[in-house]
User: Fold this.
Amino acid sequence: MKIEAGHSPTSPVSIHDLTVAYHRKPVLWDVDLDIPEGKLIAIVGPNGAGKSTLIKAVMDLVPKASGKVMIYGKSFKKQRKLVAYVPQRESVDWDFPIDALGVVVMGRYNKIGWCKSVRKRDTQAAMEALDRVGMTDYAHRQISQLSGGQQQRVFLARALAQDSTIYFMDEPFASVDAATEKAIVKVLRDLRSSGKTVVVVHHDLQTVREYFDHVILLNMRVVAHGPVDEVFTDANLKKTYGGRLTLLSEAADRLARH
Amino acid sequence: MSVSHSISDARRSIPSWDELVRVLTLEEYNTRVVVLGVMALGTAAGLVGTFLLLRKRALTADALSHATLPGIAIAFMVMVSFGGDGKTLVGLLLGAFVFGCVGVLAILGIRHTTRLKDDAAIGIVLSVLFGLGLCLLRIATELPNGSAAGLSGFIFGKAASMVASDAMTMGMVALGTAIVTAVLRKEWTLLCFDEKFGEVQGWPVLWLDVVLMVLVATVTVIALQSVGLVLAVAMLIIPAASARYWTTKITSMLIASALIGCMSGWLGAVGSALIPRMPTGPVIVLICGFWFVFSFIVGPNEGLLIRQVSRVRLNRRIALQHILRSMWEVCEDNNKSEFALESIVHVRSWNKRTVLKLLRYCAKKNYVTSLPTNAWRLTEKGKAEASRVVRNHRLWEVYLITYADIAPTHVDRDADMIEHVLGRDLVQKLEALLDSKTIPLSPHPIGASE
Assistant:
């Protein structure tokens, strides 16, 4: 899998020998890969495999122990305008005095700039983003009044309002309802057809084949990465999940039979 | 305050009408200085306090205010050693400000370098620096030149010592705070709601945080004279916490918080002026506390009363639905359109009195009529309503059984039409599962439900 020195300067995200450590304990070892442009990419792996850490390290949210990351050949600092981020839903306090539209408008804050207030066209862009996730009716709802799936869609709309080129999403499908899952998948496909690159931390092995083009199998190191058809094999999954996969597939089978 | 009667305690405790008017209209110079200064302070604290609360840094502010004491003592000693009398207010407050910031830095340092969490770090810094302050104060009072007698006034506040220039300073700080808050409102909102997202967008979150804490330190320092360092944090937190019960929008929360802070300052200062020997700071804090309790009870946003009322309403609606369903099912079982009270008691865990009460409530709503034979009958209106309730209930049951894994996010059992929540096609699918188009049979034996 590893193509050393073969990093492409046109890759949206090019990761070179990245190692990340928390409290002296490494959580990611020597990650070295190029993410292809215009694809939907899933990062898959067991709990504690460093999936979220990987995308956080790319966005400079956690310090790197070593290695570097290039966004279209330049450092993240120079290219941050190209990047939109959908954090985990649990990472914020939803009992905050703001409505859904207010959260989505945050996606426009860097376009608005320092100390200026929100302009009409920003509100308009935010409303359009809410429309894309089917949340127009909830624009003025206080965010604590929304269901988990609706909150997730608000987060997604905020990233859409940024109108970026690369999207990083941290577990957007975690505990959402069927309607939200459908809405997210539709948005992902729209993004792909307009040439955007979307990297998604994903926990549901069942849907990887259906939703994604590329997959990165991660367990503290990259076990395998590439097109889903080639890489998402039983052998690779066993390498990623170790003994736990049998348990997982058993549970999944039982659910499917139900 | 400057109340200098000496007649009798009983007479003093009830202010005369003249006195009341004089104080309320700020005719007295001393009262005017204190009231205006404290109102400015309350406004500033209300504004900054809103973001402090949303940033979840309320306790840090408490540590900050306690940490100012050694700063005051050291500033005094430095000024005395340079030959002054050590009473220059600006110098003392500068010392307080510097040590307040030292306190915050110490908390951050402990959090980042040890395994201790925020609460422990705050406890350590608050108590150690306050202890240090008390010791230094003791040393300061024993210095040969200069008298440190007034310094302890900063601990509990001594509004009476305020002069016009102090009130002016408070007014300027309040104005400055209002301007900074207005200018950084958008940035601070982002910082408080989702720091990581802000960081990815390229906002300097560390510096936004620093500016916020510097403003908190400034407001704390100007509160020292009137409210005192032990209670200063109340001015920052309580107005903002009360405002939260009145609104769900950050802009209106800022305005409400500033108003509550300002009014508490006014009422507190006026109140303490009217009641002799009542310290200003604690009275202001008590007024703040009153606002909080008031907001917490009657506030429209999650206030106690609103919550209680909606709970009672919900319970009554649930009870109504339950009895309608029971009546319908009893009739369905017996193939009759009338039923005895006992048959309802039999299928429900309610006692006779509750059932009777509910039946009377139903009769009031024209859902049932009582028959002379001591039985009850569903009216046409009651039948329609009951069959709707039963149908929805059974569809929900089937839905929950069939789609157990995705159901919980969808369940709104109170929806008038299950179709509104689930969509017509899904409801049709559920109805097919139940083999019935109108009212499905209960998927479990009736009577064993609930």
